[in-house]
TrEMBL record:
Pfam families: YcxB (PF14317). It comes from Thalassomonas viridans. This is YcxB family protein. Residues 98-150 form the YcxB-like C-terminal domain.
């Protein structure tokens, strides 16, 4: 009888971790569609300013909001990184556990479990693994994985249990 697999490690959600997560899991979109909300806000602000008698502060607020939205699209990476570093989870310790049940992450603010049957694919990236499940994606850095844990994730990631001795 084989012993059930279990792997546990801790890591810190620091700037280098967030930077790696963005680099390995986000595909930046700079198309016109990405700017659509910004364009809409600016056009609404201009429309309010030119064609209504409404207070100009509301119109300029919408124009300013549109410009901020455009900057958030143009500078997606630093914008995302700043938001993560300002979150309450920044610089906290996370315990990652990989076992027969799934992939668990636990910190002072998050207690999440990704069940094996929910995972549809596991993709290798240059610095880790991208776990795709039920319309979502999670990144796991190789810095916090052993070779055995990465191999186990791959073996279970397609929803099938690994073949072992009976």
């Amino acid at each position: 009888m084989t012993e059930p697999f279990s792997y546990s490690t801790t890591f810190k959600l620091d700037k280098s971790h967030f930077n790696e997560c963005y680099q390995e899991s986000v595909v930046p979109d700079y198309s016109l569609r990405a700017y659509s909300k910004a364009i809409l806000l600016v056009l609404m602000g201009l429309g309010l300013s030119m064609f209504t008698e409404i207070d100009q502060y509301a119109a300029w607020f919408l124009i300013g909001l549109g410009l901020v939205e455009a900057l958030s699209v143009k500078y997606q990476r630093p914008w995302w990184l700043a938001r993560q570093m300002l979150s309450r989870g920044a610089n906290s310790q996370v315990t990652l556990t990989i076992d027969e049940q799934g992939i668990k992450s636990k910190s002072a603010y998050v207690d999440a479990l990704i069940n094996w049957q929910d995972i549809s694919a596991v993709q290798d990236t240059e610095q880790g693994l991208l776990v795709i499940h039920k319309g979502d994606r999670n990144y796991i850095s190789n810095r916090c994985l052993s070779d055995e844990a990465a191999a186990y994730i791959h073996s279970r990631g397609d929803g099938k249990t690994p073949a072992g001795p009976a």
